[in-house]
Specification:
The strands form three sheets. This protein has a seven-stranded parallel β-sheet with strand order 3-2-1-6-7-8-9, sandwiched between helices. The chain has a six-stranded parallel β-sheet with strand order 12-11-10-13-14-15, with helices on both faces. The longest helix is centred in the C-terminal third of the chain and has 16 residues, at about 375-390. It has two domains: about 15-195 and about 375-390, 3-Layer(aba) Sandwich (Rossmann fold), CATH 3.40.50; about 205-370, Rossmann fold (3-Layer(aba) Sandwich), CATH 3.40.50.2000. With about 425 residues, the chain is of the alpha/beta class. Helices cover about 40% and strands about 15% of the residues. The termini are far apart. The chain has 16 helices and 15 strands.
Length: about 425
């Protein structure tokens, strides 16, 4: 064995004996709290519990929206002038590049194919580091909201090129995989759905005291919209559908949980007695879900729909757009209704059915909670770990067992 091959063999043996080192690159990790960032933080937390070493490269701000998991290496970024809550991250330069070199990663996981992702991909290709990616944002569906439709073909062309360089592409649903395949992406796609913590989001969180404090009567049907308040989440469809309900004489109340740049405008379009709580998290958020009666989410831009899954786990029937994200969660006619995107009347019809029929709400809510229990975080995160092992040629580990669920608690205030 010559000296070079001996050095390579020794290097491979050293890598096998040490913990896996994973470098994660994302356009958002702690400067904004949404489904993507919360999912990635959970992933990092789980990987570190399993003994892996993880280094996260992402933009940040002076006042982050959440306390992040793991070690974060800040990447220079610039807020979008028309959406300051979103940042455009730049490439890996200066101290960040030196940290990456010193880290000596075994695997790159790129969560966003932006400038940072492209810089990471080029670094990995140059240094022969395997790369995987995960699909979190349905980019083409956002273009219409910013009058960028003319560049859609360019976007798909770039995504085809980018994902072709990756060993794996992790997609949240089979329906999202079908959309990507229709646009010519032929990377090896593996299913990585999102999970929900059913010890936090559960029907037992329902609180009449909480409802009364916000001015909801016990017998009022509360329709909730829980998400960041941005127009691409279907806020215009939501407002139009509620206007139709009002004209039909349907009595209901509205609960809005979340904040964002569209808040001021949407306040003008919703009923005057709409309750806005602002951003909630943890037990407060779980109580808000369970204490409403119907969840409505007309967004067509979701790759999965974390808020829909949280609503279902909380025992709510969900009225959602028949789009790739929601259609893989909501069983139409069983756990809620799927409506044609942009069809205000379709959404109004579904909301009217549920508002008028208490028994239907309960049956669908029970079915939704049962379905949500199959999306258990530990099992889903363990799946990602095994995907990494496939790429690295590491024998499969013993599967992580799902945690036992706590005893069912009695509903609050009942």
């Amino acid at each position: 064995m010559n000296s070079l091959s001996g050095m390579l063999s020794a290097d491979r043996e050293s890598r096998r004996r040490r913990p896996r080192r994973i470098a994660l690159f994302s356009g958002a990790y702690n400067h904004i709290a949404d489904g993507v960032t919360l999912t990635l933080n959970r992933l990092v937390e789980q990987l570190e519990k399993m003994g892996d070493e993880v280094l996260v490269f992402a933009p940040t701000t002076r006042e982050p929206a959440l306390d992040h998991s793991g070690t974060l290496v800040p990447i220079p970024s610039q807020p979008l002038f028309f959406r300051p809550d979103y940042h455009v991250s730049f490439g890996i330069v200066g101290k960040a590049r030196q940290r990456l070199k010193e880290f000596d990663a075994d695997l790159f996981h790129i969560a966003t194919p932006d400038a940072l992702g492209l810089s990471a991909l080029r670094y990995a290709m140059k240094n022969e580091i395997p790369v995987v990616s995960s699909y979190h944002t349905h980019f083409s569906s956002y273009l219409q909201y910013y009058h960028l439709d003319p560049i859609e073909s360019l976007v798909w062309g770039y995504l085809r090129w980018f994902y072709d360089k990756c060993e794996h592409l992790y997609v949240p649903t089979e329906s999202m995989q079908a959309v990507l395949e229709e646009h010519g992406i032929d990377a090896e796609m593996l299913l990585w759905p999102r999970g929900v913590d059913t010890t936090v989001f559960r029907p037992e969180r329902r609180s009449l005291r909480w409802r009364r404090r916000l001015g909801f009567a016990d017998d009022e049907v509360v329709i909730s919209f829980i998400s960041r308040l941005v127009w691409e989440k279907g806020l215009d469809v939501f407002a139009d559908a509620l206007e139709l309900l009002t004209r039909r004489g349907v009595h209901f109340r509205v609960l809005i949980v979340g904040d964002g740049p569209a808040r001021e405008d949407i306040e003008e379009r919703l009923p005057k007695d709409t309750v806005f709580t602002g951003h909630l998290e943890g037990a407060d958020l779980a109580t808000a879900y369970a204490s409403s009666d119907v969840f409505c989410f007309p967004s067509e831009t979701e790759t999965f729909g974390n808020v829909t899954l949280e609503a279902m786990a909380s025992g709510l029937p969900a009225v959602c757009a028949n789009a790739p994200g929601s259609s893989s969660l909501v069983v139409d006619g069983a756990t809620g209704f799927l409506c044609e995107g942009g069809n205000n009347s379709d959404f109004a019809d579904a909301l009217e059915k549920l508002s008028a029929n208490r028994g239907l709400r309960f049956r669908m809510g029970d079915a939704a909670a049962e379905r949500a229990r199959s999306f258990d975080w530990p099992v889903i995160l363990a799946r990602m770990s095994e995907y990494y092992n496939r790429v690295l040629g590491i024998p499969a580990r013993t599967p992580v067992r799902a945690r036992s669920k706590p005893p069912t608690e009695k509903a609050l205030d009942y």
